[in-house]
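Lab notebook, page 48
Experiment: co-folding of the full assembly
Goal: obtain a model of how the components sit together before planning crosslinking
Operator: M.T.
Materials (sequences as entered):
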Amino acid sequence: MTTPIQVTDLHKSYGTVAAVDGLGFEVAQGETVAILGPNGAGKTTTVEILEGFRRADSGEVRVLGVDPATADRAWRDRIGIVSQSCTGLDLLTPREIIASTALAYRNPLDVDHVIEVTGLATKANARIRGLSGGQRRRVDIALGIVGRSELLFLDEPTTGFDPQARRDFWSLIRALGEDGTTIVLTTHYLDEAEALASRVGIIAAGRMVALGTPSELGGSGRTSTLAWDEGGRRATLHTDRPTAEIARLASRFGGEVPGLTVSRRSLEETYLALIGPQSAVGNADEVAA
Amino acid sequence: MNTLRLAWDRTILELKMYARERDMVIFSFLFPVIMLAIFGVVFGSEIDAGEKAQGMNAARVFLPGMIAAGVLLTSFQTLAMSVAIERDDGTLKRLRGTPLPPVAYFLGKVGLVLITALAQLALLLVVARFVFDVRMPTEPAAWLHFAAFFVVGVVGGTTLGVAYSSLANPRSVTAVVVGPLLVLQFISGVYFTFGALPSWLQQIAAVFPLKWIAQGMRSVFYPASWAGQEMTGTWEVGRTLLVLAVWAVSGLVLCLRTFRWTRDS
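Observation: model returned without errors.
Model output:
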């Protein structure tokens, strides 16, 4: 079986601005990979090249074994795309557009099933014009998954969702992942990446500056922070050996350490360090060191 | 799933969206019918006894122009506006990301135009015949010409509308699409008798398709003796078809060369 996504030394410039600058990564069969990065880092350009909407200037791109720039209908049948909010469906109902979209695929999911799992059952026959932002996003997601594609692209899928809707969406994506769907997810929400992704890639300044499991990215270096109350103030200590430090503190205090908390370095902190205000690539080296 | 089945499904979807858009229904579908009714009533007393003796009335004077305007409203205006909006709002990009064959999308548009144009035509003819008592041609040749002008006009309006959509976006459609078409209606003999326009304006109008569709329709619905009021004193059936065919093919070539699925790139 071919690796669903292989990208090597990808370059894409708009005028003199390099949007993607030597980016490379692979996504394995059945994996869910989250791509993080600030606006303008090259995330959307990269994903749109993978989806076949843009052509790369140079570099090697293989998606399901095919260069997306030359992809045909059979290839499109194997890909599902949830783009950033698609308007223009205002005059239709969710059922109408989901059923029509399903027709284009060889082996689509059942329309009622898709309406059910995306939580659109009560709005299935209402004009999309009258739906809330979160409900419209559910329609976008329904259109992306109805084709029963083996590779699914999700571009900031939960924008506009309330916390319960996000949880529902997460279980939907997990279920798709368990069925073997390969998923590429771009998001601004780090908790979403941690909740869904087997690996997380961080793009900054057109390059993949980090790629690993959430715990690898969150857990490298001096990862834990201890904090406790001492002498009327809050004391903190950064350490990569938290257990040993706690034992020392415990013996110093002769038992319970007042107000002790232990926090691990989070993915969010790694992310912010990697995309830091200066050269993102330079910062990546610091973190890795 | 075969392409024709998908094209038919797209046609149904397009028709639903068209029918649910009140502006579209009023300004492209009903507009010529409303105008025919208004002109038929308002100008009823302007027809002199000689003209009445030839079987003319106000509605018969305006019917060819209203049919011609309707052809371009349901084809050119509808498509230039809707494709421009769909390109801008991401609909085209979304469709491009599915296995829907592009030709099914375009055939869906063609289906929309054909059905709305035919329905509008039927409505115009029924109102003209039964409300305003307009005398209909009886010779089969006239109806054959009529069908030819109608089809080549609709096809041209369709290809030109899709091509023209590249020049517009949702904020500019009124100025870029509706405005020029309105001017064209005024100088192409839709609202005024074409013979009453200054000849330099007639020459300008003769570059564009609407003048020819209107002239073709006049050749069908006016008494034969009225041909003398045309620019060349004849109906120019062959030339009308040729000019409209050239416009239709040019529109198709433009579509193939310039069509974009996304706003940029």
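Interpretation: The mean pLDDT of chain B is 92.
Next step: discuss with group before ordering constructs.
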